[in-house]
Design a protein that fits this description.
The chain is of the alpha/beta class. It folds into 2 domains: 154 residues, Rossmann fold, CATH 3.40.50.1980; 102 residues, Nitrogenase molybdenum iron protein domain (Rossmann fold). The protein is built from 10 helices and 10 strands. A 4-stranded parallel β-sheet has the order 2-1-3-4. β1, α2 and β2 form a beta-alpha-beta unit. α2 crosses α5.
Amino acid sequence: MAKQLSIFFFIIFPTILFGKIVVTVSILPQKYFVKKIAGDLTKVEVMVPPGSEPANYEPKPKQLANLTKSKIYFTIGVPYERVWISRFKDINKNMIFCDSSQGVKRYPMASSYSFVNKNISQNGINKKALDPHIWLSPKSVKQISKNIANAFVRIDKKHTKFYKRNLQNFLKEIKKLHDYGEKKLKDLKQREFIVFHPVWGYFAREFRLRQIPIQIEGKIPKVSTLMRLIKYAKKRGIKTIFVQPEFSKKSAEVIAKNINGKVVTLDPLEENWQKSIKKAIDTFGEVLQK
């Protein structure tokens, strides 16, 4: 009986005592998705703060302590989760883990320049490394949002209609954003772009663009490879190199100087996901049209 009361108390504790269901997510865009579905019924903690890289982030002691308050942890497949999730489970054995990426088709991470030099790798892809940046595809975010909504319905059935209504409204917003991108990017003269870190793969696939990464499996390539990339960019008329705020611009600036191009910064980890994707659509539409 005592055990049953303990379980019951844990289930209602976040919603009754605090008035909100406390959840934790890995990256800022997930916070946006959760708030779209659960609104003010939830308090969202984010593990990877602005300006940090989710590939190798190490949570701070205070963040680990805060995990004891969480009812759900929403994973999304970023690399640091492989190292830390098992530790999170030890910290809060009652916390529910929901894979928000479930059902999203994953693609290999672009990692070489076989399109620049046929002797480099096979198809420009490391088939063992799957690209984790699924949140940059509106189509993928539809499935992510459904997973989030289903998780809330399972633990808080009395607000089922609220979660489902919010989900349907958000799905309409996502479709509108996708349609905007389709219209904006369908007639571009240039459909290839260079990116320092291959973060825009799912976005590019959705809108029939092609990203060409500077990094190869997270590392800066040899000078000889950079020279081949510069030669390829000149031949194809590529003038723009996209970078993230978290990474150094040095290699991108070297290439930009040699192709008489420019470096453009886009943040794929902004909290306001819709604003971020619209900005990306507008930016790609502007620079690739020239």
